[in-house]
Amino acid sequence: MGGGTVVRKGEKRSVCSDMVGKPEGKRPLGRPRRRWECSIKIDLQEVGGRGIDWIDLAQDSDRWRALVNAVMNLRVP
Question: At the N or C end, where does the chain have fewer CB atoms within 10 A?
């Protein structure tokens, strides 16, 4: 493509309708599902890691593996 080429949407589609459109379908009943991040924070609290930043912890694979093993040991009957 040469410089200055402009690609446009078709005339029937407008940016406004894309931005303001209503989602189709219904939300499921009940409380929202727990996010993965929330699960990690709860697991940290259970093993006494209150106040630890899990993102920094995940950067150190040895410490992260130790956390995962500690949490898994809590889950095993």
Answer: C
